[in-house]
Amino acid sequence: MILLDPEQPDAEHSGVREAAEVCPAAVIFIQDQGAPMTTTQADDLAGAPLPAPRRCPCAPPGFYTETRASGRPRRGTIWDGSNPWLVATHRQVNQVLADPRFRADVTDPAFPNVDPAQPQTQGDIFFRQDGDEHLPIRHILDPDFAVTQVERWRPRIEQLVDKVIDALLTQPRPVDLVKHFALPIPTMAICEVLGVDLADSSTVSRATHLMTDMEAPAEAKVAAMGEMSDLIGRHARDKEEHPDGRLLSRLVTWHVPSGELTFDQAVLLGMLVIGAGHETTANMLGLSVLALIKHPDQRDTLRSDLDTYAMPCAEEMLRWWTIIQTEPPRFAQEDIEVGGQTIKAGEGIICSLAAGVRAWSAPVPRPEPRPP
Ligand code: HEM
């Protein structure tokens, strides 16, 4: 078992301590910012801006961890002046995400858009829809991401990763790990799954980066969506003529003719798969390497027996970094109590996955090592 914080995996952490464990650069940054936040200061922050300012690049913002420590949802303020609730404990995040009365429809005026471009860029995407709109589309994607199918991809993905590492080793030192390792791997892997040409990867990289940049203007995001839509649309038309059994091909040659999707929805789904898996995986790869550099003892344990430790290590990295920082948002369809607080019908609520899993009070499940 690998735990990035071997001493107190289940304890409440302050962001400052988390940073000190992972990244000396972050500690210097924090020292420049003054003393760690106290509970009194945190109470003053009720209604703090969301996404909350981050004092350390390696830890959830103080407002999130202080909200978690308070045990109750607290209000934040988003760009349009509205005040959605923030939930930050593991239990409360689970409660909200498991309750269909907390709705995900981004086109509803009650939905708390943390990004002004959200209704435009996500309005037709199934992961911002509820129940009967969401599920049938999700089922279309399920087979490609089932464990057995992902296992079938393993040899091909390993081949691609080897290729990227070989190319990395030929670069002059120091080498930019993100540019030459973390970004190309998800691009190549997702392009394989979708069945699109790798030569288009630079367009994919640029557009997905813009789409996930919290500070990019709405017009730039909409333009990036258009660029991706043109690109995937061209490939989708090509698949109609030359089907290859890969995901994009099946979307347009099975699910469009069957009436489950329109052609435009098929293209949007292709774009979602690229967008959802690209920056997330790239950031996880880069940050995981950083964590192992900062924890050489755990790096050595990992290297000592990859068959035993690789999977638990990946799970722990996902928990520790939880790179999705402003998601998932929902709104209450009726009055619902969460952590002793009534979230009224029509009020927005944002789940902090990052704060929720950093202080996991339930036993952390560890996957069994993969059979040889
Ligand atoms: C470390 C990598 C990843 C992380 C941390 C991550 C995280 C997440 C999170 C938090 C959501 C829920 C978002 C919300 O409801 O607001 C989500 C949804 C989704 N992700 Fe990922 N993801 C990762 C990689 C991928 C990859 C590689 C793919 C596909 C190639 C993918 C495809 C999707 C899809 C299709 C959804 C929507 C699912 C649904 O609504 O039913 N993700 N992901």
3D architecture notes:
This protein is α/β, with parallel strands linked by helices and 372 residues long. Helix 10 packs antiparallel against helix 14 and helix 12 crosses helix 14. The protein has 2 domains: 127 residues, no CATH class; 165 residues, Cytochrome P450 (Cytochrome p450, Orthogonal Bundle). A hairpin with a 7-residue loop joins strand 2 and strand 3. The protein binds protoporphyrin IX containing FE. The site of protoporphyrin IX containing FE has 15 residues, from helix 7 and helix 14.
What fraction, in percent, of the residue positions are helical?
55-70%
Give me the side-by-side strand order of the main sheet: 1-2-3-8-5-4
Q: What is the CATH superfamily classification of the largest domain? A: Cytochrome P450
Could you tell me the radius of gyration in angstroms? 21 Å
* Global structural class: alpha/beta
Number of domains: 2
Share in β-strands = 5-15%
Query: Count of DSSP E strands?
Result: 8
| CATH architecture group name of the largest domain | Orthogonal Bundle
Distance between the termini: 18 Å
The 3D shape can be described as globular
- Mean pLDDT rating: 82
- Summarize the helix and strand pattern as letters: HHHEHEEHEHHHHHHHHHHHEEEEH
- Give a list of the ligands: protoporphyrin IX containing FE
Which fold name is given in CATH as the topology of the largest domain?
A: Cytochrome p450
CATH class term of the largest domain: Mainly Alpha
How many helices does DSSP assign? 17
Q: The biggest beta sheet, please?
A: 6 strands, mixed
What are the segments in which pLDDT stays under 50 over at least 5 consecutive residues?
A: 5-45, 361-365
